[in-house]
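Final report, section 2: Outcomes. Of the targets proposed, Matrin-type domain-containing protein is the one most frequently requested by collaborating groups, and we therefore present its record in full.
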Amino acid sequence: MDHQNRVGSKTGGGGVASWSESNVDRRERLRKLALETIDLEKDPYYFRNHLGSYECKLCLTLHVNDGSYLAHTQGKKHQTNLARRAARDAKQGATDTQTGLPIGLSGASAIPIRKNILKIGRPGYKITKLRDPVTRQLGFLFQLQYPDIATSAAAEGETEIKPRHRFMSAYEQHREPADRGFQYLLVAAEPYETVAFKLQSREIDRSEGKFWTYWDRDGKVYSMQFFFKGEREERFSGVPGLETVTQYPYVRRE
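The predicted structure is given below as tokens.
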């Protein structure tokens, strides 16, 4: 196409560039100028992904080239997010003159720094099988010994750490193949290693007198007793309007 006879063109100039061509040329000149003055490698929010695109980790935007990213950094969205981040960092960094803690964090809610404690091995334990003489429910009594249990520093002095327990499903652990027919009882107390006991996957009866724990501070023994629910309780558990009926020994009346 001949551009020599267009208005404003010079002989051999090829005519006046269109608006889109001028815009592309302007962006390219601005990109080269910005690259000479700005080091993108020092930008903490600049990230190049595995696809070759560029991302802004502050605004979570995607750009096809570095020029598009530079134009984004000069925009209103990026500048607003920068101001918000600076205000938040200044607020979090400010400390209260009375407590010496960051503003918004009181002494009661402060999370203590967890220290790396050297584990000294597994505790001794004893397991006793039980069966309720009335309901015929199967249960267990666990007794774990913690003679060298650790202590935690408190405001009034040092207090002894109490062992804790948790029931874990087979799908939460990764040491053995997951089997829906089993569950695990975890008991933890520093500086001892956490021990796990493999149990059948049945619902625990947490009614009064069926489930209890006790920590003997003098003997350093943690006791835990529980019973599994019977077939009737498991089958009708959670059914509205159905109350649990306590089974008593049959007494013949004359």
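Residues 19-37 form the longest helix (19 residues).
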